[in-house]
Amino acid sequence: MLLVIEPDAARLRQILTALAQGRYSRQAVSSWQAAVLAEVGWQLALSTEQGYWYFYTLGHLLDKDVHGKPVLRDQDISEYVADLDGIPGPLEKNGVTGLRSHQLRLDKLLWPLASYAIGTLDIESVTGFTAVRGVFENRNEVVQHCHLRFEADDYLLVKHLVPDDPEVFVLGSQRDQIQLQRFVQAIGL
Q1: Rounded distance, CA 41 to CA 95, Å?
Q2: pTM for the complete prediction?
Q3: Beta strand 92-93 with 96-99: parallel, antiparallel or unpaired?
């Protein structure tokens, strides 16, 4: 049983780890998150780096997609733990490096650059790079995102998890269209 107390960084990491390892059920963690949320709202005393958005994402643990599968996959929870543990992104391909949130250069502004239609719900099935599902803004919408670095530029791919919306949005730290095309070709988009 989880006590209804606002988590600090260590406690949230412990809960996410236990969830990923199957020591806590999705139902138990979802109930805990809802109870804490009822007490503290959006004013949680965690920074983004400490898992602020991961905590809010836990409100969607019981949500199902159109196929009856969890919207938040076990691999998403494991990615949250790896990010909190400071483990670098797992893949490099064609000069592109997959990043986890802790590796981002927060001083770089990301500009909306383009959108592309993909025939699948998952970014990773098209690009081969790990894409993580979660809530990352106050709209409380679960999206899938993938942070990548190509040469000196950072990119963010974002996909709404709506079956009839084929678009993946590309944001980047530069607005050079030739560089964007080189990046898109390198990831196979």
Answers
A1: 42
A2: 0.91
A3: antiparallel
* Residue 94 · residue 186 · CB < 8 Å: yes
β partners of residue 158: 145, 169
Nearest Cα neighbor of 89 from 104, 111, 108 is 104
Would you mind telling me the total number of residues written for the chain in this entry? 189
Identify the band that residue 97 occupies on the pLDDT scale cut at 50, 70 and 90: very high
Are the C-beta atoms of 55 and 49 separated by less than 8 Å? no
Find the helix or strand (DSSP H, E) in which 30 lies: helix 26-40
Q: Evaluate the CA torsion angle 16, 21, 23, 29 in order and state its sign.
A: positive
Residue 185: per-residue pLDDT = 95
Q: Closest Cα to residue 128, out of 181, 83, 89? A: 89
Alpha carbons 173 and 46: distance in angstroms, whole number: 26
- 74-101 burial: b if 16+ Cβ within 10 Å, else e: eebbbbbbbbbeeeebeeeeeebbbbbb
Q: Which residue has the tokens 């260590």?
A: 10
